[in-house]
Amino acid sequence: MAPPLYTTQTGRLWHAGQILVVTVGLPGRGKTHLAHAIQRYLRWMGVKCQVYNLANTRREILGRIDQLPQDYFGERRNNDTVQLHQQVTERLEAQIEGFFEHGGQVAVYDAYNSNQERRTAVQRRFEAMNVQLMFIECQCDDEEMIERNIRSMHTFNPDFEGWDLDKVFQHLRERIAQHEILYEPITDRSCPHVQLLNLGQRIVVNHVHGYLQNRIVLFLMNMHSRERIIYFARAGEALVEHLYKADADLSSLGVTYAERLCQLVMSLRQHPDKTRSSDMSLSQEHSVSYIAPNGEQVKPLQAIDTSHHELQVWCSTRKRSERTAAPFREHGVRVVELSRLCEMNPGIVDGMSDEEILARFPRHREERDKDPYGFRFPRAESYHDLAIRLEPVIMELERVKEDVLIIAQSSVLRCLIAYLQGNKPHEIPFIQVREGDLVEIYPQAFGIATRVYSFWDPEKERERRDSQFARQAARHLAKRQAAASTSEAGSSPEEPR
């Protein structure tokens, strides 16, 4: 039976079954960080999810903070300012309706929603469409966390571009004081909601039902707001490259690669601005992306101080991955081996050349091109299978507060990078993770900052190794020939009698 149809306020038909997650809380409590974290997680699961931020909509209509009426954030507003508020709110909620009308599954309403009257209005509007409501209230009594959130807003929030930090602190402290006067925490026990203290220190769940809502709760129980960096690098070259069953150790070139990777990471962490050499370049530098309904806004990436952060290295239980991580142990870095980080099992085509695969499975290219995310050979894994296998790793990645370097094969790195970037599942097979690149990702409330360092040129290194091997072989052959000539010259033939 088809799902029931409902008519929205815009007059269009809409199918039932969606969820609206509504954030609640004072400024500087990490609501936007939370909203985009939920979006990343659900998109990685294949759920059509979108964040709708009230501040982004306000900037679309009215501009930045310095362009607003003086009483816009005040306790007492004149009628014109109240109408401006209503105009912004109506535009945002109409956008959410449009998202649901076009098949969206989960929308995140990122705003203060700081009193019962406002929350009741949202609840009535969307429950009339049979949308499931789930409120998430962000409470915070940790002044250090609030200060850290304000610093992050100073760096990444478009409203404060060009402001000095002291001015941002003064402005936000005043706004917090104004909102505290009108703020009403959630007390209605009939309302489905989650209350978070300090983003994970304590969590209270009330009347939450259904698969997706419970998955969101599970995710919230593992997340935090502490700043950290996540690095990604491929494992070094193995003695046997194209045979999964061999589980081969690193080649001599792979050992050199592992040492070079360790040197780069340790240098970056000690001198994030000064680490440059002829062997390492910033091959790609992306900017922080602000996820907004009107498209992306960008801001240059700034240096990140990691000298006071601890580092963990995660690798798979495969020999090439574990040996690539080995140099970090000499620096006292904790190395964690996880079997779930092993590369995709190629199944029946393990060790086959492209010609052999094409001869045995002539239609495999057509089938793979049709569904690269779900395609698998017999007894093999697909990217979909791999994503399911990596879910506990993602939960642990959200939970851990230290910086993390993940060393694995490209298929695994694609899935994990896709999660952090908020890519859709069908985009995972096309994410580029080159051998010799160190990917540095810095999650932020308004997006992610990404740098990609090129520190190793595999073609040049292999050419250098082959040339060196050829020279050694030539010298060895020349020595043998010289020894043979000397031996022949030293032994004279017997004279006939």
From TrEMBL:
Sequence segments annotated as region (Disordered): 476-497
6-phosphofructo-2-kinase domain: residues covered: 9-225
Superkingdom: Eukaryota
The keyword Zinc is annotated on this UniProt entry: no
Any one Gene Ontology molecular-function term assigned to this protein's record: 6-phosphofructo-2-kinase activity
Keyword annotations of the record: ATP-binding, Kinase, Nucleotide-binding, Transferase
InterPro entries: 6Pfruct_kin (IPR003094), 6Phosfructo_kin (IPR013079), His_Pase_superF_clade-1 (IPR013078), His_PPase_superfam (IPR029033), P-loop_NTPase (IPR027417)
Keyword Cell inner membrane found: no
UniProt protein name: Similar to S.cerevisiae protein YLR345W (Similar to 6-phosphofructo-2-kinase enzymes)
